[in-house]
Design goal:
448 residues, mainly beta, Pectate Lyase C-like, 37-stranded parallel beta sheet, two-stranded parallel sheet, 39 strands, disordered N terminus
Length: 448
Amino acid sequence: MSYANLPRVCFALALFAAGAAALTIIPAASHADTAPDAPLSAALNVRDFGAKGDGAADDTAAFQKALDAAAKAGGATVFAPRGNYLFAGHLNVPPAVTLAGLWNYAPAHAGIRDPGQTKPTEDGTTFLPTENAGKEEAAPFITLNTNSTLKGVVIYYPKQKEDDIPAPYPWTVVMRGNNPALIDCELLNPYKGIDASNNQRHLVRNVHGQPLRMGMWVDAIYDIGRVENVHFNPWWSMKPKLFDWQMANGEAFVFARSDWEYVLNTFCYGYKVGYKFAESKTGSCNGNFLGIGADYCQTAVVIEQSEIYGLLITNGEFVSVKGPDPTMIAVEATNKGVARFVNCAFWGECNQIARIDGSGTVGLSDCTFVHWGGKDGKRAAIQARGGTLLVRGCEFMQDRPQIQIDEGVTRAVIAENIFTGAARIANRSKGSVQIGLNAAGPKQQKQQ
């Protein structure tokens, strides 16, 4: 049959008629809830393997049986419909298997913190892990492997107390192999959230929650990892005993060895350290960090070590107001690499914007500095103790000391910046330091 001369509508009808005989009718699933984004013929329902989802019976064995059946089939989706699934054990998601709940985007449940809002056990697919309380180094709750995915679920630790120092638990999700993915999940109150180490090309996208001790750990990544739209907020508890502990001990994002980590639109609130760049036995990090934020932290960014290829941090926003010495950026004496901050905003009553040490290079360009100086206002916004410093095109919005260059600095360029009040740059370095084309001005009027 030729369709060349048919009008467009007739062409579509002809195609439909020609293919109608080939259509296969897939019978409805045995349960009302169906797996999102997966054909019914490819999804295994955990209820068919004995899972109860009543918050009382241990569903570990039923889930693992379904996951193993999916692996035996050569890969499939294991679907967990609405329910509260209790786990006294842990799960291993085999290669090419997806474990999915019904959420198509990470939900938020603040009902324990805020009366009247939804609680995590009132809707959706909720996992309730209880194994290994007090055993931080024990087996993780869920292990993802090559091409395996966890998506669309809430993970809530029901025995964790919202008004006390948190009990240690092992990692909630561990990512191994090649291309493991964690998508559209809420990790409501884990002690440690995501171990994205020892894998290649991990994808962590659309994850929200309140990890208490550590949100995410990245290490031993030799092919590009991706972290997108991951927000750690205190949706679960801000009761003083727990939240003060989190502020004194918590680290939201920690990056060690990664050969180009791509991080987009991430945020954290209420931690000792927002973003830490560390060195492990495998090395340190270089990466592209766009639109990242840290609010209400003791130190927004800590750089213990970075690679010479650079930490490229663009469009960041950082606030440090709590702790014994609130500082936006702390570059430690151990750092030998490169860190560049471009078009970033810093505000909040911190003591300093940046305290820089080590033998590496730190650059700040086109940034806005709103508050600094501590209670007496005498500390410089940026203090460099060593290495190479570049400060170009930035605006300093308080009439306070702007930059202090100490003896250990080998090179520095301070140029094309805008100061409120007089320029106050203290240069104690005997190295090569260039200062020029900076514009001082009148005190800025108080904003209404």
